[in-house]
Amino acid sequence: MGAPVAVRGELAGWPLRVGGYLIDSLITLPGYILYWIGMPKNWNASTTMGDSSNAVSGSDSGNIPLMLLGLVIMLGIGIWNRWIKGGQGQTVGRKVLGITLVSEATGKPIGRPQMMLSRMWAMSRTNAMAVPIGWLWPLWDAKRQTWADKVMKTVVVTTSK
């Protein structure tokens, strides 16, 4: 890999950013499904409403290996997509929708997994402080930035798919 090339494009709108986030979330769905299937479940049923004498209850100890497999899949996809690919400016969702996260100053992807981790931490902290204002901020912001983008000095621009 060579040095990151500066990306020029128009600022990406909020719908594209949300779409990218949703696609990125969907690719972890198989892991979530396995985790949920393997999760222990408690249940309580009654054959007659309000009559506790006919109540049946039980629990399922779950399938711990299936839960762990789901967790590993979620973490693996998350690390690969958000930290490795995301550090290059485009997660799977951003790539599909033709948008890239870049430094405001250089126009280049922020790179390095450490920077991506910092951005994710900033995103979770700053945007979550006043949910949903931080995530909605691009709707009226001149640079279409979330609060995390402002902290990290990044913008999301349109690029070719």
Description of the molecule:
The protein is built from seven helices and four strands. The chain is α+β, with helices and mostly antiparallel strands and 161 residues long. The protein has one domain (14-158). The chain has a two-stranded antiparallel sheet. Strands 3-4 form a two-stranded antiparallel sheet. Strand 1 and strand 2 form a beta hairpin. It is elongated, with a radius of gyration of 21 Å.
Set out the fold topology.
Blueprint: H1 14-26, H2 29-38, E1 41-46, E2 55-60, H3 64-87, H4 92-97, E3 99-103, H5 113-129, H6 133-136, H7 147-152, E4 154-158
Antiparallel strand pairs: 1-2, 3-4
Helix pairs in contact: 2-3, 3-5
H/E element sequence: HHEEHHEHHHE
Query: Structural class, please?
Result: alpha+beta
Oligomer: single chain
- Largest beta-sheet characterization: 2 strands, antiparallel
Helix content: 40-55%
Mean pLDDT: 80
Cross-sheet strand order for the largest sheet: 1-2
Poorly predicted segments: none
| Percent of sequence in beta strands | 5-15%
Helices, by number, come to 7
How many domains, in number, for the residues?
1
Radius of gyration of CA atoms, rounded to a whole number = 21 Å
